[in-house]
Each structure stands twice: as structure tokens, then as C-alpha cells.
Amino acid sequence: MRCQDLRQCGQKLVRRRPLKPREGSEGRMSRCLNTLDLVALGVGITLGAGVYILPGEVTRNKAGPAIVISFLVAALSSVLSGLCYAEFGARAPGSGSAYLYSYVTVGELCAFVTGWNLLLSYAITIASVARAWSSTFDSLIGNHMSQALRGTFPLHVPSFLAKYPDFLALGVVLVMMGILVLGARESALVNKWFTGINILVLSFIVLSGFIKGDLHNWQLTEQDYTLAAAGSNDSSSLGPPGSGGFAPFGFDGIFQGAATCFFGFVGFDAIATTGGEAQDPQRSIPFSIVVSLLICFLAYFGVSAALTLMVPYYKIHPESPLPQAFLHIGWGPARYVVVVGTFCALSSSLLGTMFSMSRVTYAMADDRLLFQGLAQIHPRTRTPIMAILASGTLAGVTALFLEFSNLVDLMAIGTLLAYSFVVISVLVLRYQPDQNLSKKEKTENEIEISEREASPLESVPEAGISRILKSLCDPISTNPTRKSGQIVYGCALLLVLLLMILTIILAQGSRYVFSGDPVYTTVAVLLLLLIIGITVIIWRQPQNPSPLTFRVPILPVLPLVSIFVNVYLMMQMTSGIWVQLGIWNVIGFAIYFGYGIQHSLEENNGQQPPASTFQTVDENIPGTESS
């Protein structure tokens, strides 16, 4: 009996949700967002606290002028994941983003972990941006607010909490929550105004840096640092000198900076949460993701280059780098332009992130993996009112008590985990057969017959190793079968495991690998050969030919590179960050096993589709067509 119970529990953990919307769930929210709204949402979230604050700390302490390379690496990771989001946006245009994509491909438990960590990332992002908003305002009034709060409400608590409660940050979150309650169209209009002003200010900063910048700041030496320290009244105000030059902290600093800079690119995935409110989701979501990532990369690259050209990296102010940079070059009044842009950027980032967090909360509650009451839709505004209030309250409390600088890496690792699940889902889904019977006009028996005819393993049971390898690398069928789909599913899981081991070796023992250590080098080469061999097996399997508005190119290589980069960045995090992530997931598992696994709508939906059964087109979504 125990074995049977364990088996039933295991089946519940991997049950999948069909892509087709459940009866009564489609059309509950208003489809009022066009492509421009989605691009503004993605750009508004991404170009927030990251572009105005993050370059200061990373440049000064981790990467120096090579921060432009750090942003390039972080952008590469985001673009690779973004392309996978774009394909899934064309396949599954529904609310929930990475959570939904994992649910229909990998299974319920992985979907819950993905959604739960997305909520963590969103909550931390909101808290960080709200704190940055408050800090910017406080600096304008001479830091009187922080001094008063620190003296009135001192918090003698662990280091990861703030020194005082930030009531202004809480107030800003509540205001944005009120805007979201008004409706999706109204909040999108406010967001477009904020984002437009932000883009204009960033353009001014980039042009100013290239006009007043000095290339010598990318070629500084230890002598320059010594002279700067001698001419400074407080040499402790200078950052570490490193070894000078363009990359004063070496490759380690560049990659550590890239892991932190990844925070700056979080935001494009918010576009994927609008599937229930976009007018033409299967076309506008992929396009908006690609365009917003391009705009954001150009902005980050330009601003970080301008900053490091204007100011020597060890003189950059970590908390307000851009205003202090304009003071340094003698353009004092320009800092007020930066302040206006900062407020607009932080406001649009805050509004967009809260929008995304509420939609993921709603999607999980609508599937009953979170409490059902969170899926309530307001009858007039057609917004998920309870999800907005709950997620806004959680984010507001986080902003009230938690410190920004201690949470960036935790946010990044949670987002990287969610991105990796999406990439795996795309890799698996592309090679699955189309089981839409109305289009293919096939019965289950016909599928089984075609598979037996196409599979040498079934027709020739005595086949040897060579025949098995030939069947894996040279399948007869030109369309995916259940057997080929299962092969890809197993190979994908094995590849993920091998890539994790390889990235751990490279992250923790790269100096041994590249120095020629026989043990590390041999293990790394063997892992690489295995990865290449399994990649070839996947590549040789037939892909689903169903037409889409966007498809990830260079499959399966691009998703595998994306997984490698994501895991490598995660390996740059400290053990303390992993412990904090583990604590958050323990809380999530308590909710899932205590509530979600019993109340899930898939509990009583009968037998679930097999692992290789997926539907690629949602015929019930207005504005889409079956191909």
C-alpha cells in the first residue's frame, strides 16, 4: 500500500496542465494591451534601479571599466533565455509566464518551484526599487528622513534586514498598487509616460559621457590611484585599485560583476505574464521580448561606458554614481535631469514588476496551487484584485524591512532558476509530436502503429549497440513520434545534469582545468564529449513542424548554451545566498504539500496527457489562427 501511495504521489508531482484554457477561465480579464504597451512594460521594468544605481557598485568594487563586458555577458544570458520565452509566448499565450511554461512541459512540482521563486524575485525587485526610490528622495532633502527614522525606529536585527523601517518605500508601493487596481489599460498608460521620459534622460547621459569622457579612465595605473589618494582629503572614500587598466579585477571580477549585472536585465519575462490581457499575444509577446531586450542592452552598455569614461572607476560613488559623475565633470545642474529620470525609471520599474507579480500569483491561484481566493477578478476593472492586494502587501512589507544591497544576488538566483526551467521546457517541447486529433485526424492506435513502423527498436528487438545508436542518430520518421519525444525528454534531463556538473567544475576549479591539471582536465573533457554526443542525439530527432510566429534558432545548441550560462552565473553566488533560497523554498513546499497538491485543478481532471503530448495553438484566444 505504501508503494502504491508513493507512486500516486509521484504521479501528482509530474502531472501536466494542458495548454488549452480551462472552461470559464478564458476572457475573465480584459484584452486591452497592444504591442507598444508590452514593449514599454518590458523596458520600464528593466531600466529601473539597475541602470541608475547598479553600475556604481559593480564598477567600483568588482569590474572597473570592464563593467561593459559584464553587462554584455549578463545580456547574453538574458537574450538566450529571452528567445526561449519568445517561442513559448507564441505557443502558450496565457498568464503565468515561466510558471505556465513549466507546468505544461515539465510538471506540477517544477511549475510550483518556478512560480514560487518568481514571486521571490519579484518581491525582492519591488522592495529594492522602492528602497531606491526612497533613498533618491532622501538624498534630495539632505538625508534628513533616514536620520530621523534611524533615530526614532532603530532596528537591532540581523545584517540582511534594514537599519530602520522605510515608510516612504512602503507608501510608494501602496500608491502603485492603487494604480494597478484601476485597470490594465490605465496602468499601461501611466507606465508609457514614465518609460518615455526615462529613455530621453538615458540618451542625455550617454551623449554627455561621450562628449565629456576621457579614454584615459579606461587605462588607469597604480600611479594614478596613488596620486588620487594623495590629493583626496579622505582616501578611504576611494574604492579598491585592483591592478589598473581596463579590467583591474581580472576575469573573476568581470564574471562576478556579470552575475550581479544580471539583476539589471530582469524584466523582459514580465511581458510573458500579459498573455491573458494582450490583444494579439501570439505575435506581440515574442516581438516585444526581442525589442525590449535590444533596447535595454543598448541603454546599459551606453550608460556604463559613459560613467566609466567620465569618472575613474575608484572614484565612482556607489550609491549615486550618475549625479556625482556630473559633479565631477563640472556639469552640476545636469544631475537634476538625472534625478527626474531616476524617479521615472524607478516608478515604471515598480509598477511593471508589481503588475507581473500579481499575474503570476493569479495564475498559480487559478490553478489552485496557491489559495483559491487569490484568483478573484474584479467585475468592473477585470483585474485580479486579490492577487494585486496580496502581492502588493508582501512586497510592501519586504520594502519596509529589508535592505537592497543584501538581496540583489538572491533575486538573481531565483530568476536564473526560473529562466532555466523555461529553456528546458522549450528544448523538450520542440521535439514532441502534435497530438491535436482534429488536425491530424489520427487515433491513438494509428499513432502506435506509425511508431512501431518508424522505430527499429520495436521491429528488431535483437538489435545490437550499433543499431541502437543508429536509430538514435538517424530516425526514420520525419515527424516527431512518442518514442522520439521520450528520447529527447530523457536526453534533456541528462544534459541538464551534465551541464550542472561541468559548470560547477569550471566555477570552482577553473584554475586547475586551464592549468592542465590531469584530473580536472580529464573530467572536464569527458563531460564535454558526453554533452556533445547527447546534443547530437537530440539534434537528429525530428522536430514538430507546426508553424509559429517565432521559433528559437539553432536548436538544441542555443538552449544548452543558455542553461550553461545561467548555471555558471548561479555558481558565482555565495553559500549564504543558497541557504536563503533554500529557506524560501521550504516555505513554498509547506504550502504546496499542505494545500496545492490536494486542491490542484489537475487532481480530478482524469488521466493527464503523456509526457510527449502538447498542443501548440490555442484556438480559443481571439486574434490567433490555427495553422
From TrEMBL:
<keyword id="KW-0812">Transmembrane</keyword>
<feature type="transmembrane region" description="Helical">
    <location>
        <begin position="519"/>
        <end position="540"/>
    </location>
</feature>
<feature type="transmembrane region" description="Helical">
    <location>
        <begin position="66"/>
        <end position="86"/>
    </location>
</feature>
<dbReference type="GO" id="GO:0006865">
    <property type="term" value="P:amino acid transport"/>
</dbReference>
<feature type="transmembrane region" description="Helical">
    <location>
        <begin position="167"/>
        <end position="184"/>
    </location>
</feature>
<dbReference type="GO" id="GO:0005886">
    <property type="term" value="C:plasma membrane"/>
</dbReference>
<protein>
    <recommendedName>
        <fullName>Cationic amino acid transporter C-terminal domain-containing protein</fullName>
    </recommendedName>
</protein>
<feature type="transmembrane region" description="Helical">
    <location>
        <begin position="254"/>
        <end position="275"/>
    </location>
</feature>
<dbReference type="Pfam" id="PF13906">
    <property type="entry name" value="AA_permease_C"/>
</dbReference>
<dbReference type="InterPro" id="IPR002293">
    <property type="entry name" value="AA/rel_permease1"/>
</dbReference>
<comment type="similarity">
    <text>Belongs to the amino acid-polyamine-organocation (APC) superfamily. Cationic amino acid transporter (CAT) (TC 2.A.3.3) family.</text>
</comment>
<feature type="domain" description="Cationic amino acid transporter C-terminal">
    <location>
        <begin position="550"/>
        <end position="600"/>
    </location>
</feature>
<feature type="transmembrane region" description="Helical">
    <location>
        <begin position="32"/>
        <end position="54"/>
    </location>
</feature>
<keyword id="KW-1133">Transmembrane helix</keyword>
<feature type="transmembrane region" description="Helical">
    <location>
        <begin position="193"/>
        <end position="211"/>
    </location>
</feature>
<keyword id="KW-0813">Transport</keyword>
<keyword id="KW-1003">Cell membrane</keyword>
<keyword id="KW-0029">Amino-acid transport</keyword>
<feature type="region of interest" description="Disordered">
    <location>
        <begin position="606"/>
        <end position="627"/>
    </location>
</feature>
<feature type="transmembrane region" description="Helical">
    <location>
        <begin position="577"/>
        <end position="595"/>
    </location>
</feature>
<feature type="transmembrane region" description="Helical">
    <location>
        <begin position="98"/>
        <end position="124"/>
    </location>
</feature>
<dbReference type="InterPro" id="IPR029485">
    <property type="entry name" value="CAT_C"/>
</dbReference>
<feature type="transmembrane region" description="Helical">
    <location>
        <begin position="385"/>
        <end position="404"/>
    </location>
</feature>
<feature type="transmembrane region" description="Helical">
    <location>
        <begin position="334"/>
        <end position="355"/>
    </location>
</feature>
<feature type="transmembrane region" description="Helical">
    <location>
        <begin position="487"/>
        <end position="507"/>
    </location>
</feature>
<feature type="transmembrane region" description="Helical">
    <location>
        <begin position="287"/>
        <end position="314"/>
    </location>
</feature>
<feature type="transmembrane region" description="Helical">
    <location>
        <begin position="410"/>
        <end position="431"/>
    </location>
</feature>
<dbReference type="GO" id="GO:0015171">
    <property type="term" value="F:amino acid transmembrane transporter activity"/>
</dbReference>
<keyword id="KW-0472">Membrane</keyword>
<dbReference type="Pfam" id="PF13520">
    <property type="entry name" value="AA_permease_2"/>
</dbReference>
<dbReference type="GO" id="GO:0061459">
    <property type="term" value="F:L-arginine transmembrane transporter activity"/>
</dbReference>
<dbReference type="InterPro" id="IPR004755">
    <property type="entry name" value="Cat_AA_permease"/>
</dbReference>
<feature type="transmembrane region" description="Helical">
    <location>
        <begin position="552"/>
        <end position="571"/>
    </location>
</feature>
<keyword id="KW-0325">Glycoprotein</keyword>
